[in-house]
Specification:
The protein is of the alpha/beta class. It has helices spanning about 1-15, 45-55, 65-75, 95-105, 120-135, 140-145, 150, 155-170, and strands at about 30-35, 35-40, 55-60, 80, 110-115. The protein has a five-stranded mixed beta sheet, with helices on both faces.
Amino acid sequence: MLTLILVLGLARLLVSVGVIQVSSLRPAVQTVAPGLVIGSAPGDADLQDLASDFRVDGVVDLDAPSVAEQTAAASLGQGYLYLPLPPDASPTRAQLQVLARFMRRYTARGDSVYLHDDVGGGRAVTTAAMLLLLRGQSWPAVSAELTTAELASLSAGQRKAIRRLEAALHKARGPGAVRLDPW
């Protein structure tokens, strides 16, 4: 028992002086572009922190609808959009149109939208990349905003969907072409 008390006391001392770093259960978040923050599923306190630290005014859930998350977002005055994407999937044209409207609405005053899946992985990264392409950025510019780990989290199907969108947007710059709503 004495050994355990000594070990815990030593651990506490080492944490207090910074020798041991304590990991947080808070989701890792990344600002991909002004107005767009991505990460993993947030808890109630995380939504409060996102609102104050990143000026998050809207939340987009790509994983599974969460009544707790919807309630917390509503209590903070944040908009909430559930956009169901199965693992390794990418958003459809219709989903991108809904998302672009949501982004315009909740970033109009300089605020941000928090886009998440369960782990801040391929679905969130793919959707963020597609939003940036819709915004008019080139793929080299979009990929420069993402980390190597985020790019590695993309499935082959997600990479293909991004390439298809990039090609369609490139074609759409011609006269009379139909385009998705930009964000």
